[in-house]
């Protein structure tokens, strides 16, 4: 099937290229409309959680009480009590359009001294919008934001809605900056890897088509499901990286085919698609499955990332199996043209070849040592403190984070630090007041009072002073939920600390289901590709080891603050619970990607050795005693794939390295996590651990029910089993 697809793309190459160009133009026009089709916001919350259920009640007649925005006025050397200062602020606030605003409160409208700083040089205004939808509140804030300006006064915007608006704005700018940094580096690296401008341009052409086509794919996905704003930021860049990875593999294989027998270009393209194209299809399927595993999470962010990611990966595979073969046929022998004189490393594949033999001399010792190192690197992750996104993901100088810091340092209380209890059911006022007093005695709570009653629904507002992402916050939420409400009623708690607890619980409860789904499908695909039940299990275990090492580093960097100065962020002692899950989906798929590259070559080397042995035998039958050593097949495969896997890893590192330039912490988490996972997997796991484990397993690596590993032949070597796709030579 793959060979036929290659021949079709080669013979109909003009039509394939024309269709690709037409689709790219269509995607550039219609696809970019995806930005207007996104549902907005992040969608991190679990729609089935207690905090979201409480939010739905508060969106009704009962209403919300917590402000959405805190507008902080810093008057500098002047006092808020100065009549000219007070008049200027009051005039500006009075002129703010009230459309979409449910409540706007100031020091002068309330007389509450908590609205003025202790030094009397700052004051704040609280704004609560009428809408209960986060992105509608963001749009309302953008409309009224300029109206709060006061000449001679520094104005900053804090609160959940302001934080969301600032994260959205920075994410768009950061992705544009990441692409502007990554693309030139990708071009340079491809030229270095191939040494030819023509060869380097082919993966870039496919990558460009996938980058544009991703917008059209995402817009199509928005027609059937909600897609988070951040999906387009992450998925399009990863689609570009995967397309370039696949292009690297196929162009490298095409050049090999030309060196072997380049007389028939159509046949060379067909063989390329039949071998490397098949590998691309299998690895792409596995990456898509890893993304699809995210759909087990009910949150819009992770679910939409799963749908969008799987769709874009499938599109990247389709582009690699159609457009790239057509371009290879157009290039033909000119694929090596326009060579760039660059210093070349001397036989890098030979170094990996010798290293593979070195670890296979003592396979048990090598395996135990490497596993111990990876487990030690992952051990810090056991002490992780999970969190949800908040203003802490922004740079230290961002408005939302500055407002939170100044409210804690200069004011008696932060009006945005509230937990809301929604009591449903009939209860008299005395019982509700008594319940509020009980809640106020919970450690960490700074006062609780009934702030609204509508029918059988009651709102109780609780203040707090701790960091909503701290372990203290989680304990306080658990203690509050354990407090018995008045008889005949039930209580629901919401607010940033409660939402954080619910998100972490959702992810912890669903991660086993995600891993089980990905493991089951990965097992089935690898078994179908290689006919072994041992190889899929080995791949799953080794991938988890490489991920554990990356996660240990993520904890040390973002929770403990290692290299925070280099990355330019201020650690707050937490790791966002959403993004390691996202890293699992992406890095696991990439790890299996490299695994398929290597195992496919090992199988080819085994088949080649078996064929050579049969050809050398007088009767045409393979002699087990004279068959090539399995260790040689493994080392030869490592040598032949080292350039591809190393180059693919470097290209992916360059793609995701742009995330490190982001000012948003969770984008940096993706960058650091993926970079480390890819580097560890492409070097320690594929170059060292896989050869050692394969040598340790011997012929059992290829075992499946009904197929016995052959007994050792004379000379101590086991005869190679039948290799899928190979046939014994006829006499």
Automatic annotation (TrEMBL):
<keyword id="KW-0472">Membrane</keyword>
<feature type="transmembrane region" description="Helical">
    <location>
        <begin position="364"/>
        <end position="387"/>
    </location>
</feature>
<keyword id="KW-1133">Transmembrane helix</keyword>
<feature type="transmembrane region" description="Helical">
    <location>
        <begin position="649"/>
        <end position="670"/>
    </location>
</feature>
<feature type="compositionally biased region" description="Low complexity">
    <location>
        <begin position="711"/>
        <end position="731"/>
    </location>
</feature>
<feature type="domain" description="SSD">
    <location>
        <begin position="198"/>
        <end position="330"/>
    </location>
</feature>
<feature type="transmembrane region" description="Helical">
    <location>
        <begin position="579"/>
        <end position="600"/>
    </location>
</feature>
<feature type="transmembrane region" description="Helical">
    <location>
        <begin position="307"/>
        <end position="328"/>
    </location>
</feature>
<dbReference type="InterPro" id="IPR000731">
    <property type="entry name" value="SSD"/>
</dbReference>
<dbReference type="InterPro" id="IPR004869">
    <property type="entry name" value="MMPL_dom"/>
</dbReference>
<feature type="transmembrane region" description="Helical">
    <location>
        <begin position="15"/>
        <end position="38"/>
    </location>
</feature>
<feature type="transmembrane region" description="Helical">
    <location>
        <begin position="280"/>
        <end position="301"/>
    </location>
</feature>
<dbReference type="GO" id="GO:0005886">
    <property type="term" value="C:plasma membrane"/>
</dbReference>
<feature type="transmembrane region" description="Helical">
    <location>
        <begin position="185"/>
        <end position="218"/>
    </location>
</feature>
<feature type="transmembrane region" description="Helical">
    <location>
        <begin position="513"/>
        <end position="533"/>
    </location>
</feature>
<keyword id="KW-0812">Transmembrane</keyword>
<feature type="region of interest" description="Disordered">
    <location>
        <begin position="708"/>
        <end position="731"/>
    </location>
</feature>
<keyword id="KW-1003">Cell membrane</keyword>
<dbReference type="Pfam" id="PF03176">
    <property type="entry name" value="MMPL"/>
</dbReference>
<comment type="similarity">
    <text>Belongs to the resistance-nodulation-cell division (RND) (TC 2.A.6) family. MmpL subfamily.</text>
</comment>
<feature type="transmembrane region" description="Helical">
    <location>
        <begin position="230"/>
        <end position="249"/>
    </location>
</feature>
<feature type="transmembrane region" description="Helical">
    <location>
        <begin position="540"/>
        <end position="559"/>
    </location>
</feature>
<protein>
    <submittedName>
        <fullName>MMPL family transporter</fullName>
    </submittedName>
</protein>
<dbReference type="InterPro" id="IPR050545">
    <property type="entry name" value="Mycobact_MmpL"/>
</dbReference>
């Amino acid at each position: 099937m793959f060979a036929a697809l290659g021949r079709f793309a080669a013979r109909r190459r003009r039509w394939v290229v024309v269709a690709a160009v037409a689709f790219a133009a269509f995607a550039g026009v219609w696809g970019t409309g995806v930005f207007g089709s996104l549902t907005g916001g992040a969608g991190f919350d679990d729609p089935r959680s207690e905090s979201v259920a409480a939010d739905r009640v508060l969106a009704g007649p009962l209403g919300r009480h917590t402000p959405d925005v805190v507008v902080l006025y810093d008057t500098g050397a002047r006092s808020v009590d100065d009549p000219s200062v007070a008049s200027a602020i009051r005039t500006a606030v009075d002129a703010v359009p009230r459309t979409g605003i449910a409540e706007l409160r100031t020091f002068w409208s309330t007389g509450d001294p908590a609205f003025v700083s202790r030094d009397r040089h700052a004051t704040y205004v609280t704004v609560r919008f009428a809408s209960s939808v986060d992105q509608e509140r963001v749009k309302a804030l953008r409309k009224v934001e300029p109206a709060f300006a006061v000449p001679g006064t520094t104005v900053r915007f804090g609160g959940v809605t302001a934080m969301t608006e600032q994260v959205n704005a920075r994410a768009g700018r950061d992705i544009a900056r990441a692409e502007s940094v990554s693309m030139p580096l990708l071009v340079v690296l491809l030229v270095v890897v191939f040494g030819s401008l023509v060869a380097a341009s082919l993966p870039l052409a496919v990558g460009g088509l996938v980058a544009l086509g991703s917008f059209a794919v995402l817009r199509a996905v928005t027609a059937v499901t909600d897609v988070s704003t951040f999906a387009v930021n992450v998925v399009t860049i990863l689609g570009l990286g995967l397309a370039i990875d696949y292009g690297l593999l196929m162009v490298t294989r095409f050049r090999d085919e030309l060196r072997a027998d380049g007389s028939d270009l159509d046949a060379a393209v067909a063989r390329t698609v039949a071998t490397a194209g098949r590998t691309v299809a299998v690895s792409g399927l596995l990456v898509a499955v890893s993304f699809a595993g995210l759909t087990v999470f009910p949150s819009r962010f992770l679910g939409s990332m799963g749908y969008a990611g799987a769709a874009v990966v499938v599109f990247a595979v389709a582009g690699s199996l159609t457009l790239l073969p057509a371009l290879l046929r157009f290039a033909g022998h000119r694929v090596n043209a326009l060579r760039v004189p660059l210093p070349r490393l001397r036989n890098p594949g030979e170094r990996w070849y010798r290293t593979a033999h070195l670890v296979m001399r003592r396979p048990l010792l090598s395996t135990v040592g490497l596993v111990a190192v990876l487990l030690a690197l992952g051990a810090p992750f056991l002490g992780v403190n999970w969190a949800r996104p908040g203003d802490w993901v922004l740079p230290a100088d961002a408005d939302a984070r500055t407002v939170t810091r100044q409210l804690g340092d200069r004011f008696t209380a932060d009006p945005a630090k509230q937990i809301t209890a929604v009591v449903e059911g009939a209860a008299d006022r005395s019982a509700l007041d008594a319940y509020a007093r009980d809640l106020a005695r919970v450690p960490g709570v700074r006062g609780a009072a009934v702030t609204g009653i509508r029918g059988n629904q009651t709102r109780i507002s609780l203040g707090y002073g701790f960091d909503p992402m701290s372990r203290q916050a989680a304990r306080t939420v658990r203690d509050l939920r354990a407090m018995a409400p008045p008889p005949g009623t039930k209580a629901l708690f919401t607010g940033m600390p409660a939402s954080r607890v619910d998100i972490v619980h959702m992810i912890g409860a669903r991660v086993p289901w995600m891993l089980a789904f990905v493991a089951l499908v990965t097992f089935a695909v690898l078994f179908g590709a290689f006919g072994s039940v041992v190889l899929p299990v080995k791949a799953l275990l080794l991938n988890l080891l490489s991920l554990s090492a990356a996660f240990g580093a993520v904890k040390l960097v973002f929770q403990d603050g290692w290299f925070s100065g280099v990355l330019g962020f201020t650690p707050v002692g937490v790791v966002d619970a959403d993004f390691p899950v996202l890293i699992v989906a992406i890095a696991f798929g990439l790890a299996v990607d490299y695994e398929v590259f290597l195992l496919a070559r090992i199988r080819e080397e085994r088949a080649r050795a078996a064929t050579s042995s049969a050809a050398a035998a007088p009767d045409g039958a393979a002699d087990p005693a004279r068959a090539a050593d399995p260790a040689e097949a493994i080392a030869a495969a490592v040598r032949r794939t080292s350039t591809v896997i190393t180059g693919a890893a470097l290209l992916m590192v360059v793609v995701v390295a742009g995330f490190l330039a982001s000012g948003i912490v969770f984008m940096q988490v993706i960058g650091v996590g993926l970079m480390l996972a890819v580097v560890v997997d492409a070097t320690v796991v594929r170059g060292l651990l896989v050869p050692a484990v394969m040598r340790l397993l011997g012929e059992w690596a290829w075992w499946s029910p009904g197929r016995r590993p052959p007994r050792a032949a004379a000379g101590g070597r086991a005869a190679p089993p039948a290799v899928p796709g190979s046939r014994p030579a006829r006499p």
